[in-house]
Amino acid sequence: MLGNFSYCNPTKLYFGSNSLENLSVELEKYGDNVVLIYGGGSIKKNGIYDEVINILNKSGKKVAEIAGVMPNPTLEKLYEGIEIARKAKADLLLAVGGGSVCDYAKAVSVSVNCDEDPWEKYYLKFEEPTCETLPVGCVLTMVGTGSEMNAGSVITNRKEKLKIGHVFADEKIMPRFSILNPEYTMTLPHYQMVAGIYDIFNHICEQYFSGEDDNTSDYIAEGLMRSLIVSSKIANVDPKNYEARSNIMWTATWALNTLIKMGKPGDWEVHMLGQAVGAVTDATHGMTLAAVSLPYYRHIMPYGLQKFKRFAINVWGVNSEDKTDEQVANEGLCEMEKWMKELGLAMNISELGATNENLKDIVKATLILEDGYKKLTVQEVEDILKRSM
Ligand code: NZQ
Ligand code: ZN
């Protein structure tokens, strides 16, 4: 543990099948005007909308709505939401949905009282808010991003073909509270469930494949990955299994709530490649990560060989006896590949809409980061994407 850090995570979590009961207690802490934010309608079909509206009404809140927040929320939609929140004089933004809805609520929160253009300020210049922000609360219905307990917010600019995430430094951008009921995730289509599972796994990988010191964070990461592998195999064949779904939900939160990044650098290049694929194709986030991961990890493995060997042994149970470090590390990635195929993840970007024609745009949209085992060149980005086709 060689890094210096401060750690604070103020999000209050309510977990379990009765967790929505706590919404009314939280609502008491805020003014009368609540803006309810949700996606394309899943919460109306599965009844979560009615449950939330009942509680809001009983609490005497005036409710305005931002509906139709799409997966990979766009800048245009953000501009629309800012106007609604301004008009409603919002005291609280209540996000009911997955990472897209929760990320979007944070983007509205930092923009409502801001005179500058949010895209320019937060997503191109990565500035921190200089205005009053609004509190965000979250009722989570899709598991994967960790947005329920972090300060990340990803917005897609369709015109510019860019999808950019800003992880705000100020912890007050994290949701003030999040309600996590594993049962709410059971209506997710299989495709979304496994995409979320891979998103979780990759968040852990992004923070694990970096650094060379002995670091407590890496041991926590290995435990989270082992739990996720066990529960994902169960949920894959028995999606209504509460124990597995609740473990997955809890792992997702701890995978990206800042805990396991403490004291070490992070890689995040798989997310940069995946986000570029998403910017051009609008594909599901977790699937974009799955489709580029193995070509990327196989490429950087020689530069972080000892960590890949450790990953193989401690996460995948590879027996290292009489094998070279390369053989052990390779076997780990082969085990990971088998697991990914078992879940039915996207294994190449062409099935997500990438073509030889739009590959150039994807290369151009890929940000190159510095903290992983190998800083990629633009040529390497292109090669990895070609190998992902
Ligand atoms: O829009 P509705 O109708 O609600 O349908 C959604 C959406 O189509 C559906 N869904 C959600 N809960 C459901 C459900 N369907 C049935 N039953 C339920 N209970 O699932 C679809 C996907 O939802 P979405 O919110 O887009 O998924 P996810 O949670 O994966 O969020 C993806 C967004 O989060 C960003 C991604 O880039 C992407 O924009 N990320 C945010 C991060 C963060 N804040 O730290 C980090 C991540 O790496 C990620 O980049
Ligand atoms: Zn992710």
Could you characterize what this model shows?
This protein has 389 residues and is an alpha/beta fold. The chain has two domains: 12-184, 3-Layer(aba) Sandwich (Rossmann fold), CATH 3.40.50; 190-387, Dehydroquinate synthase-like - alpha domain (Dehydroquinate synthase-like, alpha domain), CATH 1.20.1090. The chain is 47% helix and 11% strand. The protein is built from 15 helices and eight strands. Strand 6 (152-157) and strand 7 (162-167) form a beta hairpin. Helix 11 (285-300) runs antiparallel to helix 13 (325-343). It is globular, with a radius of gyration of 20 Å. Residues 39-43, 46, 71-72, 97-101, 103, 141-142, 144-147, 150, 152-154, 165, 184-185, 187-188, 192, 196, 199, 256, 271, 285-286 line the site of 5,6-dihydroxy-NADP.
Topology as a string of helices (H) and strands (E): EHEHHEHEHHEEEEHHHHHHHHH
- Spatial gap, N to C terminus: 38 Å
| Total beta strand runs | 8
Query: What is the annotated CATH architecture of the largest domain?
Result: Up-down Bundle
